[in-house]
């Protein structure tokens, strides 16, 4: 246990004929060989919990004669054969919590079974699970907190509370694979028709690994996916349509879609994405439709759409995008429809290029409007003349690095900003304003009423700041490390305050470059 074992070779335990207990939990196992335990007939406790196993077949479990305790919690199991398990008449404990199981073959009567844990699986309460409602399981309270995920009419209901007559099967379920070997052709949690694999609304937390290589359409919408790992679909060379909408996806690995050279349609709408790595879509040379609407995207990295020359519809509707760097759409030569509405767009000089593009190409059809600056707020982006995309004072610096997913703070309300100077002097301030823009190279706070420079002032975020003027205040205390981390600070003016004590600890690492104090 507690290692990083990813594989076990065939016959690894053949010589361990007296083995009684084996703990392989908390490793990285994705598969185990057939007949791995064939020589371990005395094995009575096996712990494979907290690995990455997706299926366990009868052949993989075959061997032990007197198994008492089998723990399989917190894997990614979508299929578990039950025949071998049913032969273990001494079995007392079987734990399956936290997997992706939607059904389980009937276990023959086990008089010694006292613990059966099935919580946190997306159970499909159809005719295949009727056996769970047997009186002996209920009487031993083995179904406590076990809930149905499907069908919709039973979703959220406790299994033990369901009338057995409600547990019915459709034609698809009746034709479902009878073993995990058969399920390898089609994941047991999904339904396969011709070249379409339908895994929607199954409560999945992980993408099934045994997807047929002939798949052209994969439906994974309406699940509980939070992350799309590298090479998640690498064997699906023929995939044309992929639906990942209505999940809880927060992150997509850079090579998640590697190998999908035929993919035409990718739906990622209604997820929790805040940022997308620049190379995520790089291999999708055939992509024509990309739906990213209704996420929480705060930015678009400049190269995020690089190489998508065939894309003709891009939806970014209903996100949190404030600005888009010039060049972001350069490769989208076939683009015919673009949705940008319901984004808090800052229509300043750095977005002028987009206004010009939309004036030339009438592709924005969702009615996108500017949120700021106030002078053009609520106006349609495509109707604003180029000369209206202006920057006043320091406005150009706020959105200058949008392509790097950085939008700076606006000038603080009591202050005045010009170029990279933030002037808060003579404003009767009693503390340093919050959210000083990071583009600032000079911060004027002189002639105020500030008495205490606190550690939580967050000066360390102002890595471009070269000069701070705090003269003519009422400063009596500066916390240790208050100015730490200011890697560009050269001048700090504390003239005409009420300091009685000064220590280099107040400056921290900023003291190394300081020239004037």
Question: What's the arrangement of secondary structure elements?
Answer:
Blueprint: E1 21-23, E2 45-47, E3 55-56, H1 58-61, E4 69-71, E5 79-80, H2 83-86, E6 93-95, E7 115-117, E8 123-124, H3 135-139, E9 148-150, H4 171-174, H5 180-183, E10 191-193, E11 196-198, E12 217-219, E13 227-228, E14 241-243, E15 251-252, E16 265-267, E17 289-291, E18 313-315, E19 337-339, E20 345-346, H6 352-360, E21 370-372, H7 395-398, E22 416-418, E23 421-423, E24 442-444, E25 452-453, E26 467-469, E27 477-478, E28 491-493
In the predicted model, the low-confidence regions spanning at least 5 consecutive residues are: none
Q: Tell me the name of the CATH class of the domain at 21-172.
A: Alpha Beta
Shape: globular
Largest beta-sheet details: 8 strands, mixed
The helix content, as a percent range, equals: under 10%
Question: Which structural class fits the helix and strand makeup?
Answer: mainly beta
Rounded to an integer in angstroms, the radius of gyration calculated over CA atoms is 31 Å
Strand content: 5-15%
- According to CATH, the fold-level topology of the domain at 21-172 is Leucine-rich repeat, LRR (right-handed beta-alpha superhelix)
The pLDDT mean sits at 89
Termini, distance in Å? 58 Å
CATH level 4 superfamily of the domain at 21-172:
Ribonuclease Inhibitor
Domain SRCR: 94-200
Pfam family, one: LRR_8
InterPro entries: Cys-rich_flank_reg_C, Leu-rich_rpt, Leu-rich_rpt_typical-subtyp, LRR_dom_sf, LRR_TM_domain-containing, LRRNT, SRCR
Protein name: SRCR domain-containing protein
């Amino acid at each position: 246990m507690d290692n990083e074992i990813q594989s076990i070779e065939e016959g690894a335990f053949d010589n361990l004929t007296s083995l009684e207990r084996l703990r392989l939990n908390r490793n990285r196992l994705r598969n185990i060989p057939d007949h791995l335990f064939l020589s371990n007939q005395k094995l009575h406790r096996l712990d494979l919990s907290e690995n990455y196993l997706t299926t366990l077949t009868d052949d993989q479990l075959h061997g032990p004669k007197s198994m008492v305790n089998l723990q399989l919690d917190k894997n990614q199991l979508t299929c578990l054969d039950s025949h071998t398990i049913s032969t273990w008449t001494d079995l007392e404990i079987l734990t399956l919590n936290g997997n992706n199981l939607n059904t389980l073959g009937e276990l023959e009567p086990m008089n010694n079974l006292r613990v059966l844990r099935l919580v946190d699986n997306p159970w499909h309460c159809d005719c295949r699970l009727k056996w769970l409602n047997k009186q002996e399981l209920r009487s031993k309270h083995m179904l406590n907190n076990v809930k149905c995920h499907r069908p919709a009419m039973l979703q959220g209901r406790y299994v033990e509370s369901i009338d057995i007559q409600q547990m019915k099967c459709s034609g698809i379920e009746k034709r479902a694979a009878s073993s995990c070997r058969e399920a390898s052709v089609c994941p047991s949690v999904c339904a396969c028709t011709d070249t379409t694999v339908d895994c929607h609304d199954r409560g999945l937390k992980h993408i099934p690994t045994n997807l047929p290589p002939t798949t052209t359409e994969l439906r994974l919408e309406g699940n509980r996916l939070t992350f799309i790992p590298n090479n998640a679909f690498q064997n699906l060379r023929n995939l044309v349509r992929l639906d990942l909408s209505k999940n809880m996806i927060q992150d997509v690995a850079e090579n998640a879609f590697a190998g999908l050279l035929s993919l035409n349609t990718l739906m990622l709408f209604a997820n929790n994405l805040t940022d997308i790595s620049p190379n995520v879509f790089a291999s999708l040379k055939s992509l024509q439709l990309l739906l990213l609407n209704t996420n929480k995207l705060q930015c678009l990295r400049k190269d995020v759409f690089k190489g998508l020359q065939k894309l003709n519809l891009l939806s970014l509707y209903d996100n949190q995008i404030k600005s888009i760097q010039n060049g972001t759409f350069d490769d989208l030569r076939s683009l015919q429809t673009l949705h940008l509405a319901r984004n808090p767009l800052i229509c300043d000089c750095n977005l002028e290029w987009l206004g010009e593009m939309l004036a030339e190409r009438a592709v924005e059809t969702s009615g996108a409007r500017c949120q700021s600056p106030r002078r053009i707020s609520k106006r349609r982006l495509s109707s604003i003349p180029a000369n209206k995309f202006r920057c006043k004072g320091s406005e150009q610096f706020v959105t200058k690095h949008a392509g790097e997913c950085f939008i700076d703070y606006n000038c603080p309300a009591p202050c005045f900003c010009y170029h990279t100077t933030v002037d808060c002097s003579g404003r009767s301030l009693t503390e340093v304003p919050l959210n000083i823009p990071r583009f600032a190279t000079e911060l004027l706070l002189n002639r105020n009423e500030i008495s205490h420079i606190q550690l939580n002032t967050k000066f360390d975020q102002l890595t471009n700041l070269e000069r701070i003027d705090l003269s003519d205040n009422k400063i009596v205390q500066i916390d240790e490390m208050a100015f730490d981390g200011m890697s560009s600070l050269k001048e700090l003016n504390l003239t005409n305050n009420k300091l009685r004590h000064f220590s280099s600890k107040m400056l921290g690492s900023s003291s190394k470059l300081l020239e004037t104090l």
